[in-house]
Fold:
Amino acid sequence: MARKRATAGDVVDRMLDEWKGGMLTFWTLGLLILRPMYGLEIKKEIEQSSQGKIKLGPSTIYPLLRRLENRGMVTRRWEKSLHGPPRAYYEATPAGRRIVYRFIEEVLSPSSPIPNALGRLTQHVLAQSIERRNEHE
Structure:
């Protein structure tokens, strides 16, 4: 059976999904450092804080939480709920906390060379994009 060749659009979409997935992992772990949360609570927090730009389904958040649990980044405990069945609450483990703190320190912190370099790169790419758009108008 012949394999369907990926289009440039497919490759771009997959790459963007991969990058977004990485940010979603960081975001979820960061929230779980602040306090234990259940899956729907994490989903709502991300959707609200992204001003609705990010919409997550159960098929996104729960597999992510399982992967983090399997990697030892989060633990899960069950608690009774006043409304409905018991809920699984997730909390960052010491390893989960370390990875978030290191990512912030090594990648996001102003003392890291990465934000400055990415900021300059972003400015250049945006300027080029605006120039090209103006040329086509």
About this structure: The chain has one domain: 8-111. The longest helix spans residues 8-34.
